[in-house]
Please model this.
Amino acid sequence: MLAERVSNFRQTAQWRRSLDIWVPAGILILLVLACFFGPFIFGLPGPNAGSLLDARLPLFSAGHIFGTDAIGNDLLSRALYGGQISIEVGLGSMLIGFVVGGSLGVIGGYRGGILDIVIMRLLDMFLAFPSIILAFVVATFLGANEINVIFAISFFTVPAFARLARATTLQLRERGFVIATRLLGARERDVLIRHVVPNVIPSLMTYGLLTVAIAMFIEAALSFLGLGIPAPQPSWGSTIASGQQYLSNAPAIVLVPSVFLFTAVASLNSLGNALRTRIESQ
Amino acid sequence: MTLSIIGRRFLQFVPVVLGVTFITFLLLNLLPGDTAEAILGTNANPVSIALLRKQLGLNQPLLVRYWHWLEHALTGNLGSSLITQQQVGTVLSQRVPVTLELLILAFLIALVLAIPVAVLAARKPKGIIDRLGATTAMFGLAIPNFVLGLVLILLFAQHFHFFPATGYSALGSGLGPNLRSLFLPALTISFALFAAYSRMLRADMMQQLAQEEYVITARAKGVSEPRILIRHVFRNSLFSLITIVGVNFGTLIGATVIVESIFALPGIGSLLVSSVYNRDVTVTQGVVVILAVVTVTVNLITDLLYLVLDPRVRYGTV
Amino acid sequence: MSDQLSSRTTDSTAAVNPVQVDLAGDRTSSGAPSPTLLEVRDLRVNFHLQRSIVPAVQGMTFSVNAGQTIGIIGESGSGKSVTARAIMGLLPKKTAEVLGSVRFEGKELLDLSDREMRQHRGKNIVLVFQDPMRSLNPTMRIGTQIAEALHSHQKITRADAHKRVVELLQMVRIPSAEQRFHEYPHQLSGGMRQRVMIAMALSCGPKVMIADEPTTALDVTTQAQIMELLRELQRELNMAVVLISHDMGLAAMYTDEVAVMYAGRVVEQATTKRLFKHVRMPYTRALLDSIPSLDHPSLEPLSVIKGRPPDLSALPPGCPFSPRCHFAQHKCEESPILETTEDGDRFACWFPL
Model:
């Protein structure tokens, strides 16, 4: 009889593998809920309602679980309200990029020809600017408020999405089912809407997550430099900036909004990457 | 054949750069807020304001102004600061070396760390180095660089006094102080670079190990895994490394702006911030244009490098 | 792999009596005095994928000695390449479960650690691949790639390695060998690249060469040249050769024994002479019929085996070839057992021709 070797085989549990999607997604959902509903639920003071008497309280102080900033505003409140702004800016600029940029990319990629070249050259020019500089300049000169910041960041998201949409469209255009549909005489508009767009959207969506992260980051950077959301409003970036001088004796002012920003960006990045791996392995 | 590809890229380069300068000019000059007014103050005599406007050439149509600016720019004259009257060119030439040194340092630190980490991670996926590297990378990509900079200052400058918190020491005053003044800022920038480079390298190497036939051939030959990793896989990954360096260059510039502000370094980034604050249009214009041109050039160079290094392109096909 | 445990096997469909087939036609008892160069017994490979286990090879048995050639013939997906890689220990450890026995000069290869196996790979047992364009590193000069095989197995100076590589290139009949050393793979034609692969394989004087579809990617003329080259080299070096192919014509001309595989199983195995004289399995017959020949009446369609090879992860019970077999009958829903005739031929069919 033949001697047999023992086979030792293990398989990683199925559920373990979905963790990498659900953990960051869960965190993000919690964050959004906290930022928009938290202040009501926890009955927090307003982000600018502090008094100098309570300045620079450390973590876990009475009534101010995350402490206060240099002029006595509750840091948790500032973080949550600031989160509202960041989320709005992030989503806003991403959506504009998605819709406008995505459309431009799909149309240009599909039609080809001069339209494509012109669109691409134009967008390349905008992409030639480092995104921050662009947002920077535009935001400053348009005036610092939330809408303008969203608009400014869109100068980056639109070309970025357009480029991705165009690349995907170009690939799709050569795929069998698109050619077949056209040979069957379908109208261009129908081909675009029913076949091309549904296949472009998934990759745009994963990129969308990463874009929100980038947008949030740019907004924070702008506010930090004083060129984004103006000072009294509780943006994460401006809170961090206000805490710069108190770094050694009251680090909470810098650290609390930083942790929020970090969590948001890290979760978005992780989720985006996890989704991308998931889509690619299919 | 390579020459025609290079030639074509150059041809594309020129209109993009021109377009970039034009858009910058457009943006900066369409702003609300009158520069002459900003200089003289809103309560100044309207006649003086008008005179200043005429002096600065602000009353001419936009396109004419752009044309003038372009003419001058091509001969190297980028105008003079509206605030300090200094030649923009001079100011730039003082600031560029600082930023350059900062960037080179950051780049080196990132590479020196990223390459070994990526190689070791690809060798033993899910091993200690891989996990450590991945966590650090995730950290590096998520943490905003201003926060990182502040934290580094807190730790190493204020707590431990290893490095100066802010300020720049020029090379002229000695290499030691110069490097010390640049170390923390360079480290701040390199974190994000490290994250991007190490992850990309690792992914590229693992993909090669999993999918490429020549890896299996090498194994069939009896070549040891470390050797395969370095001589075959890493070599081919250099291509992707070049691409990602080019792609990330834009973010690099953005990071410089912030880091120079935090650490009070007299580079291009901080110049941009101050000129924007002061509505010093000529300086802003000059800086933005230079930055955009450099970005486009770097992209061009990486594209070309990619082509030139691929032996399939260099030696042609049979 | 440190499993020295021996335990009972699970039943495999091939209930084989390990019998060694001597090419002269006599039967030798198992446990002959001198070990055969390469002896494969009941080799089984299962791939553990996310949702299923794919039995890629089920019970492969053969042996081959110096100077002999065995052909493993089958369509793509029949498990032939997997067999080659299993023998070389090149299958991914995480997903491939390899059972059975592979002995080289009496030593069990499947028990060896990767490091120990590496000493055999490229030196005693070599593998020549199918697609030399992708099998060679495009950014490395071919001379360096061949020299690498040398450096991996012996301490040799670069100068000596260079000399040896040039010798090898000449051995495989590549003209201007000295010049070719410095060239890149894309600068060579398909036939020359395959010669380079062969040179790489020969570099350390192997005893066993496994050639996995060595000529499939080449045109017919080059094919003939390469096969002739292989035959000469085999004679010169007295190698044992395992020729893997889908081409029965090649098998007819270049092998001493043939094993026909289908869906991971051996369905017929015999010495080449006897196989072609008396084909038993309808699948083998169909393969033979599909070889185009000059005698084929023109304007008549070439005979082709209808249908496609089955999906190994979802094999229906019974003979895997039955869906495509002209002679399939009800009994074929039961898996045929691999029978051995008196002459040592093996076949697995209820209704042999």
Remarks:
- Residues 43 and 221 of chain C are 35 Å apart (CA to CA).
- Chain C has two domains: 14-280, 316-341+348-353.
